[in-house]
From TrEMBL:
Matches recorded under NCBIfam families: 2a30
Membrane topology of this protein: Multi-pass membrane protein
GO terms under cellular component: plasma membrane; synapse
TM region positions: 99-120, 126-148, 169-198, 224-241, 248-267, 376-400, 421-447, 545-566, 578-603
Pfam families recorded: AA_permease, SLC12
Organism, as annotated: Astatotilapia calliptera (Eastern happy)
This protein's name: Solute carrier family 12 member 5a
Coiled-coil intervals, chain numbering: none
Residue ranges of domain SLC12A transporter C-terminal in the record: 670-786, 801-1049
Keywords noted in UniProt: Cell membrane, Chloride, Glycoprotein, Ion transport, Membrane, Phosphoprotein, Potassium, Potassium transport, Symport, Transmembrane, Transmembrane helix, Transport
InterPro entries, sorted: AA-permease/SLC12A_dom (IPR004841), KCL_cotranspt (IPR000076), SLC12_C (IPR018491), SLC12A_fam (IPR004842)
UniProt-listed PANTHER family: SOLUTE CARRIER FAMILY 12 MEMBER 5 (PTHR11827:SF54), SOLUTE CARRIER FAMILY 12, CATION COTRANSPORTERS (PTHR11827)
Length: 1049
């Protein structure tokens, strides 16, 4: 019999019934295929009968927890996360991410941050900028990247936070920066190869060339060998990324061993400084290449003999030869290039930085041109502070290596901030200590020697290494090759993500690749752009270019973080506990400052490129831009808001608050606006509305007074929003008009806040609770969320503070995640800030409560919500006599109220109906006409079961109150079995809720839906009353048919 009842309810009260609508959007949770197969018959024997009518749209939490916990956190990059294709073949290829913090974030960041600049330019930077100046540069750059925080990749974060216009523009700039970084690493590897490892391999020989000719020959060698190395690396990447990943550990080991060798060499200099003599003429360092002794003459047994050095500056080996004027006027001095860390030269560095650039003196002849320039160690570029900043900054651009690998991480939320901050801390420590140690161990003339020409062609940092300079040379070469491979691997994937998003139609071809997803066309484009950087051929010229692109990317990442915080986007919940928006603002300011410090013209060019891409994407009208700011903009923003619903991560409750007024037009529930303030905190849309009965012409002044009262109360409660008063012939229609017509365009409400009807059991209040139930049905049809605070007068005002306590969430059915989001929003307000969050869910007989708790813990961790979790087991139990009795009293009261409210005409009609039921049917006469609205049932009512029907399918005959038999039938009636089951659910749930949450400051609870027809409305109110009995503050919540919370920021 119960199965027949359920079948009838499902068959005839389906999607066409009022109050039963499908969700607005498809999601992994709501209305999923797994949930759809959970028929309500499966709940007949369980304790959830109160929720069974909506199990198709709001399934039990226990049936979905596994899906929630395993909701994939792999970033798609090319589309919204919720729009991932359900292709089984693709799903089979997705393997569970296994990388942890160390190997997934820390090591890749270390490898990308330590590289070409540390080994090839760090000593030169210290020599040119001085210890103090270089330390300031390092500290400033490290501070800039330290305040950048990203999870899920910078392109994805910016595009989804600031809109595709910003995301596309900055994403392309980030792509160009990564590509030019590959060119810089390749140029560094070639510099190591041609200058320090195999100098004779130069295709364009440098011997005998001076000045511009020598520089041109070096650049041509760099171009040829750079192109060859780029082709080789691109081939390796094309063949397969797995080979790059296998080589990554080898290259990383080279980096670590090289750094350890430098520190070991520093320690050794304290005990036994290495012998690296430097020959100085006056204050000019000589290229120690074509001479063996650092002296003009030497004394032998045969007398004074000139040296090879003499012959370099004089026209003959004899003492009376004609020599270079500078050579004659200045003495030749041999100094120890690495005096050691205990030599005390660090103090001399500070003196020279503050007072004088150099302690060595020379005699200059202004009329004598510089001759034999190839004999001196000369500066190849004019250096200044901002140039040094631009050259150094690429060495700290590897901080995104971890966030760009978020799809491979076991726990991206935990690993990315910890690994990135640990890597930044480690590398910053190494860089800043290197500045001090280089200044303490190596003479300034050696540090300023960029290519080691004064120390027999050795790499300057290699002269300090132990046990051999070759450790640094070989290690640096492999580390630069590894970093170049990483850039050629990451940049094409970034371009592929941008191309697949379709924001720039011209780039769509680069979204295609091999069958396994490898970005072939993007790799070809990356190689071509990288070749343009190699053709520049100068590492010092390429470094400022990529600095611009990276700085612009970091600037907008910081801007995205700051805006998300200031707009209080509900799904922006950074797990990093020390985060504050001022850090992001500071980082943005530093990035902008560094851009113009490095090169103002490069900065302008980069901004023009980004601005052009932004305007192009905006012209194509691809996306919705900065939706949070659009809410406070004018017509343009309103038009943009209508383009589509907000992404789940940007969803926030836009409230329509329905209040009632008394005869004097004063608001009867002022605490409703206090709760609104606590939920909204001045963000988003709030519309406070009230309904008046009558005609607009006769009640205009009354409507104006009501509007003024609403405005005054909104100012008092600090609710930022709009107020609206609607007048109609009756309150029910006026409320419905408010629900339908409030808002403008895309600036519309998505949730309704209304108070529980007071004194609804009183006979003269029956129309109020009927209006309330109709409102519940209308919000369901309109896909609006519904919040119903019960005992609203007990809710705190904005001036109160809870110093302790709990906000308890009873999560019984999943209808979009509203129950997860609301406590988080409340706890942002100072009233609820000290309250802790507890989440309870119900396990049935055949549910695994231990696994449910694990899954719920995982889900909340992905949501970045801190809450205590408890799974309450509710086993099947027999329905008690008390439940039968309470149900019977409820139904008797319902019938008696119906009779009390009958008018005289209705009483006479009821008597006639009873008479007709006991006599043979006869044709209707003119004296007793029956209309479809009077006495006759509509087809739906004839078939559809109600909450007050008997289990055998026969309609309960309304007892005639005018007769003793009718009164006798009321007291002899039997309770409806479906109502007994629902009452059993309400009593059992209330029992466990009161037991666990009686001391809670607030209880949030799923609100069951109303009956599918109106015959059992009064029973519905009684069930809700029983469900919340004994609780001080209750917030009943119904979702709007879409997901409102996501694991993504």
């Amino acid at each position: 019999m119960l199965n027949n009842l359920t079948d009838t309810e499902e068959g005839d009260g389906g999607a066409q019934s009022q109050g039963d609508s499908n969700p607005k959007e498809s999601s992994p949770f709501i209305n999923s295929s797994d949930a759809a197969t959970e028929k309500t018959q499966q709940y007949d024997r369980k304790n959830m009968a109160l929720f069974e009518e909506e199990m198709d749209t709001s399934p039990m939490v226990s049936s979905l927890l596994s899906s929630l916990a395993n909701y994939s956190n792999l970033p798609q990059g090319s589309k919204e996360h919720e729009e991932a294709e359900n292709n089984e073949a693709d799903l089979e290829r997705v393997t569970a991410p296994q990388l942890g913090t160390l190997m997934g974030v820390y090591m890749p960041c270390i490898q990308n941050i330590f590289g070409v600049i540390l080994f090839l330019r760090m000593t030169w930077l210290v020599g040119i900028g001085g210890v103090i100046g270089t330390f300031i540069i390092v500290f400033m750059c490290c501070t800039t990247v330290s305040v950048v925080h990203s999870s899920g990749g910078s392109y994805y974060m910016i595009s989804r936070s600031l809109g595709p216009e910003f995301g596309g523009a900055v994403g392309i700039c980030f792509y160009l920066g990564t590509t030019y970084a590959g060119a810089m690493y390749i140029l560094g590897a070639i510099e190591l190869l041609l200058i320090y490892i195999v100098p004779k391999a130069a295709i364009f020989p440098l011997e005998g060339l001076e000045g511009a000719e020598a520089e041109a020959a070096l650049l041509n060698n760099m171009r040829v060998y750079g192109t060859i190395l780029l082709t080789s690396m691109a081939t390796v990447v094309f063949v397969g990324v797995k080979y790059v990943n296998k080589l990554a550990l080898v290259f990383l080991a080279c980096v670590i061993l090289s750094i350890l060798a430098v520190y070991a060499g520093v320690i050794k200099t304290a005990m036994d400084p290495p012998v690296f003599p430097v020959c100085v003429l006056g204050n000019r360092t000589l290229v120690w290449k074509s001479f063996d002794v650092c002296a003009k003459t030497i004394e032998t047994a045969n007398g004074t003999v000139t040296t090879q050095l003499w012959q370099m500056f004089c026209d003959s080996p004899f003492l009376n030869a004609t020599c270079d004027k500078y050579f004659v006027a200045n003495n030749v001095t041999e100094i120890q290039g690495i005096p050691g860390v205990t030599s005390g030269i660090l103090a001399g560095w500070f003196i020279r930085d503050l007072i004088s650039r150099d302690k060595m003196e020379s005699v200059e002849d202004q009329d004598d041109p510089l001759t034999n320039a190839n004999r001196y160690v000369l500066a190849d570029i004019t250096s200044f502070f901002t140039l040094l900043v631009g050259i150094y900054f690429p060495s700290v651009t590897g901080i995104m290596a971890g966030s760009n690998r978020s799809g491979d991480l076991r726990d991206a939320q935990k690993s990315i901030p910890i690994g990135t901050i640990a890597a930044i801390t480690t590398t910053s420590t190494v860089y800043m200590s290197s500045v001090v140690l280089f200044g303490a161990c190596i003479e300034g003339v050696v540090l300023r020697d960029k290519f080691g020409e004064g120390v027999h062609g050795n790499l300057v940092i290699g002269t300090l290494a132990w046990p051999s300079p070759w450790v640094i040379v070989i290690g640096s070469f492999f580390s630069t090759c590894g970093a170049g491979l990483q850039s050629l691997t990451g940049a094409p994937r970034l371009m592929q993500a941008i191309a697949k998003d379709g924001i720039v139609p011209a780039l769509r071809i680069f979204g295609h690749g091999k069958a396994n997803g490898e970005p072939t066309w993007s790799l070809l484009l990356t190689a071509c752009i990288c070749e343009s950087g190699i053709l520049i051929a100068s590492l010092d010229a390429v470094a400022p270019i990529l600095s611009m692109f990276f700085l612009m990317c970091y600037m907008f990442v910081n801007l995205a973080c700051a805006l998300q915080t200031l707009l209080r986007t509900p799904n922006w919940r950074p797990r990093f506990k020390f985060y504050h928006w001022t850090l992001s603002f500071l980082g943005m300011s530093l990035c902008l400052t560094l851009m113009f410090l490095c090169s103002w013209y490069y900065a302008i060019v980069a901004m023009v490129i980004a601005g052009s891409i932004y305007k192009y994407i905006e012209f194509k009208e691809w996306g919705d831009g900065i939706r949070g700011l659009s809410l406070s903009a004018a017509r343009y923003a309103l038009m943009r808001l209508e383009e589509g619903p907000p992404h789940t991560k940007n969803w926030r409750p836009q409230l329509l608050v329905l209040v009632s007024t008394d005869a004097e037009q004063n608001v009867e529930q002022p605490r409703l606006l206090s709760l609104t303030n606590q939920l909204k905190a001045g963000k988003g849309l709030t519309i406070v509305g009230t309904a008046l009965g009558g005609t607009f012409l006769n009640n205009y002044e009354q409507a104006q007074r009501a509007e003024q009262a609403l405005r005054k109360l909104m100012e008092t409660e600090k609710v930022k929003g709009f107020c609206q008063v609607t007048v109609s012939s009756n309150l029910r229609d006026a409320t419905s008009h408010l629900l339908q017509a409030s808002g403008l365009g895309g600036l519309k409400h998505n949730a309704v806040l209304v108070s529980w009807p007071r004194n609804w059991k009183q006979g003269d209040e029956h129309q109020h609770w009927r209006n309330f139930i109709e409102l519940v049905r209308e919000t369901t049809v309109a896909n609006l969320a519904l919040l119903v605070p019960k005992n609203i007068s007990a809710f705190p005002s904005n001036g109160e503070r809870f110093t302790e306590g709990h906000i308890d969430v009873w999560w019984i059915v999943h209808d979009g995640g509203m129950l997860m989001l609301l406590p988080f929003l409340l706890r942002q307000h100072k009233v609820w800030r000290k309250c802790k969050m507890r989440i309870f869910t119900v396990a049935q007989m055949d549910d695994n409560s231990i696994q449910m708790k694990k899954d719920l813990t995982t889900f909340l961790y992905h949501l970045r919500i801190d809450a205590m979790i408890e799974v309450v087991e509710m086993h099947d139990s027999d329905i008690s006599a008390y439940t039968y009795e309470k149900t019977l009293v409820m139904e008797q009261r319902s019938q008696m109220l119906k009779q009390i409210n009958l008018t005289k005409t209705e009483r006479e009609r009821e008597v006639q109906l009873i008479h007709d039921n006991t006599t043979p049917a006869s044709p209707a006469t003119p004296a007793t006409p029956l209309t479809p609205g009077e006495g006759a049932q509509s087809p739906g009512e004839q078939v559809q079961m109600t909450w007050t029907e008997k289990c055998d399918g026969e309609p309960a005959k309304p007892p005639g109150a005018a007769t003793p038999e009718g009164i006798k039938d009321i007291f002899n009636m039997k309770p409806n079995h479906s109502n007994v089951r629902r009452m059993h659910t309400a009593l059992r749930l209330n029992e466990v809720i009161v037991k666990k949450s009686s001391e809670a400051k607030l209880v949030l609870l799923n609100m069951p839906g109303p009956p599918r027809n109106r015959t059992g409305d009064e029973n519905y109110m009684e069930f809700l009353e029983v469900l919340t009995e004994g609780l001080n503050r209750v917030l009943l919540v119904r979702g709007g048919g879409r997901e409102v919370i996501t694991i993504y920021s």
